[in-house]
Amino acid sequence: MITYFDGKFVDDAEAVISVRSRALNYGLGCFGGIRGYLAADGRQINLFRVGDHITRLMHSARVLHMRLPGAHAEICGLVGELLRRNEVHHDVYVRPLVLNGSTKLAPVMREEDSVLAIYCLPLQRYMEKDAIDVCVSSWRRATDNAIPARTKATGLYLNSALARREAHDNGYDEAIFLTEYGKVSEGSAEHVFIVRDGVLYTPPSTEDNLDGITRRSLIALATEDLGLKVVERVIGRTELYVADELFLCGTGAQIQPVRSVDRRTIGDGGIGTVTARLTEHFNNVVRGRVEARRGWLTPVWE
Ligand code: PMP
């Protein structure tokens, strides 16, 4: 595969960073995750909300005293260029990554040490099962005042990895974090939605969760296109147990139904009607079948 690394498109093998780098030693970096979807013609790839992903990456960089090597439009252009250079005609995941390339000792953040890399990989499903079993993690979500939770800081994923490992060791597919204050935050790499009496609820983004693009998209699709009600409010742990429906969402996971939380079955253990409706609409949107939402898609090929 071809990867963009520090100003050049190179072979993957050449896109390397020193073991001495502050990125590796101290987790100084931030990243994004963007999906490109194969269109109905079997050739075109449409990037989903690439501009919003790059804006979020720039926000993460700002919080972490990092910088990107160009303006917003240029970085979006590099993503398209990467896919063209790799001749991508399949569903794809793109990972832009800003790393601290300094090899000096001590965790010091300096804008000028930023190195941008962008790589891509084929990606279909993120999780294998149609409906997953999740637990509430014993690990708390890192607070925004400790490791900025609204950013995609690389170091923050130690928190996610600990929760995922614990979940897997205990026979679950995924974990849901609570905040330091004991309220529902998010999954290891997904946001949480519950459905009760036909209404969708999701924690506000101030509950130490990522500024999520799928979350934002689903709120718009549910309220504006499907006439559903969505309430953003603090959610208590046991509200998860009595939800009629529960799903996780994210760029990787897309819409991932949950069938149990801490061994309490959600609804009848199947995929709920609201989740199914939203999933169908979301899939139509990302595949370019909803004219009114074409503005969220950026074609890669002429
Ligand atoms: N939370 C975390 C911690 C994540 O890593 C992700 C994946 N980017 C999400 C939520 C979902 O966010 P998005 O919809 O923007 O991909």
Automatic annotation (TrEMBL):
Lineage: Bacteria, Pseudomonadati, Myxococcota, Polyangia, Nannocystales
The enzyme's E.C. designation: 2.6.1.42
Protein family membership: Belongs to the class-IV pyridoxal-phosphate-dependent aminotransferase family.
Biological pathway: Amino-acid biosynthesis; L-leucine biosynthesis; L-leucine from 3-methyl-2-oxobutanoate: step 4/4; Amino-acid biosynthesis; L-valine biosynthesis; L-valine from pyruvate: step 4/4; Amino-acid biosynthesis; L-isoleucine biosynthesis; L-isoleucine from 2-oxobutanoate: step 4/4
Known cofactor(s): pyridoxal 5'-phosphate
GO biological process: isoleucine biosynthetic process; L-leucine biosynthetic process; L-valine biosynthetic process
Stored InterPro entries: Aminotrans_IV, Aminotransferase-like, B_amino_transI, BCAT-like_C, BCAT-like_N, Class-IV_PLP-Dep_Aminotrnsfr
Function summary: Acts on leucine, isoleucine and valine.
Pfam families: Aminotran_4
Catalytic activity: L-valine + 2-oxoglutarate = 3-methyl-2-oxobutanoate + L-glutamate; L-leucine + 2-oxoglutarate = 4-methyl-2-oxopentanoate + L-glutamate; L-isoleucine + 2-oxoglutarate = (S)-3-methyl-2-oxopentanoate + L-glutamate
Species whose genome carries this gene: Nannocystis exedens
Molecular function as annotated in GO: L-isoleucine-2-oxoglutarate transaminase activity; L-leucine-2-oxoglutarate transaminase activity; L-valine-2-oxoglutarate transaminase activity
Class of this enzyme: transferase
Nucleotide-binding recorded as keyword: no
NCBIfam families, A to Z: ilvE_I, PRK06606.1
The keyword NADP belongs to this UniProt entry's keyword annotation: no
UniProt keywords, alphabetically: Amino-acid biosynthesis, Aminotransferase, Branched-chain amino acid biosynthesis, Pyridoxal phosphate, Transferase
Protein name from the UniProt record: Branched-chain-amino-acid aminotransferase
PANTHER family cross-referenced by the UniProt entry: AMINO-ACID AMINOTRANSFERASE, BRANCHED-CHAIN-AMINO-ACID AMINOTRANSFERASE-RELATED
